[in-house]
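FORM 12-B: Structure-to-Sequence Request
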């Protein structure tokens, strides 16, 4: 029977530390970290996530702004807003909620954010530096995933890690981070033949496909660490990529959905925004 990796509890611990650092920063330097979240269009789920991010900012004492733009916004108008936020001293971090409407180029928009304020880590320079092993902002969900694996106390070096999903925001950067931890890292995706063959050898499974209940207990290696980054609404209920009930019989550790990777994503966003603020401050004469 697997132990539960409780993302809410771990988040609470990390957020307590963030609150202390923010208080000290306010007291000693008179500065308040600021995050701007930009959302285009009226996708309901996206709006829920954005308000969760704003609430989390307030709970740790950040300044937070939500910029809600209509679906009809042109890409140029969005880029103008980003220019404005890039030059706004109250703002240390900028996040443009994905997905963007179809008439926009997500990579182009992300790379319009100042790399110093790119707390999502999606700017081409940050993605490039991450891949090179240089200092960079690390995308929030993959960063949270690594933090969760570390909390199991497992030495990752030499372990077989299988990431299911190759998105730019989760799967791809998660694989790069696992490689950095010296895992033997494989990425499976929708064109993979016989995914079970890879999963059966995996000591660490990171599920980020967005396909409800794709991975079942019988596919997993005995004692594996199973991290579920899937979040899909199914009949009004939030479900992951892993069939929890069967997987928990086989795994050594498993994350629940909700209450696993999700809360860690938001906590890592707070951490990146605080880091951006500290860096800016330290770079000043
Ligand atoms: N630029 C950008 N950055 C993102 O980080 C980003 C994004 N766009 N677009 C959408 C995805 C999704 N995402 C989640 C964040 C928190 C939860 C979360 O906290 N979930 C809770 C439950 C929430 C609920 O009940 O609906 C949980 O798993 O316990 C989930 C998903 C961030 N994303």
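FORM 12-B RESPONSE
SEQUENCE OUT:
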């Amino acid at each position: 029977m697997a132990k539960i990796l409780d993302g809410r509890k771990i988040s609470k611990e990390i957020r307590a530390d963030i609150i202390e650092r923010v208080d000290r920063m306010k007291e000693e330097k008179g500065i308040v970290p600021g995050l701007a979240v930009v959302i285009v269009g009226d996708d309901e789920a996206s709006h829920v996530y954005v308000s969760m991010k704003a609430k989390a900012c307030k709970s740790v004492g950040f300044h937070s702004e939500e910029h809600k733009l209509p679906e009809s916004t042109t890409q140029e108008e969005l880029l103008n807003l980003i220019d404005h936020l890039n030059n706004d001293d109250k703002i240390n971090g900028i996040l443009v909620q994905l997905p963007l409407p179809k008439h926009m180029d997500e990579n182009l928009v992300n790379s319009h954010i100042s790399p110093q304020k790119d707390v999502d880590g999606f700017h081409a320079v940050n993605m490039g530096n991450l891949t090179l092993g240089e200092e960079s902002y690390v995308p929030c969900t993959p960063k949270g995933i690594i933090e969760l694996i570390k909390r199991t106390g497992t030495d990752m070096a030499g372990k077989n890690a299988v990431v299911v999903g190759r998105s730019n925001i989760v799967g791809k950067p998660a694989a790069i981070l696992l490689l950095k931890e010296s895992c033997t890292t494989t990425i499976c995706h929708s064109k993979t033949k016989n995914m079970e063959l890879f999963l059966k050898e995996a000591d660490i499974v990171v599920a980020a496909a967005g396909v409800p209940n794709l991975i079942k207990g019988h596919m997993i290696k005995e004692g594996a660490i199973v991290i579920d980054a899937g979040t899909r609404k199914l009949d009004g209920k939030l479900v992951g990529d892993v069939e929890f009930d069967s997987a928990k019989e086989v795994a050594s550790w498993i994350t629940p959905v909700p209450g696993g990777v999700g809360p860690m994503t938001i906590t890592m966003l707070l951490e990146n925004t605080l880091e951006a603020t500290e860096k800016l401050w330290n770079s000043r004469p």
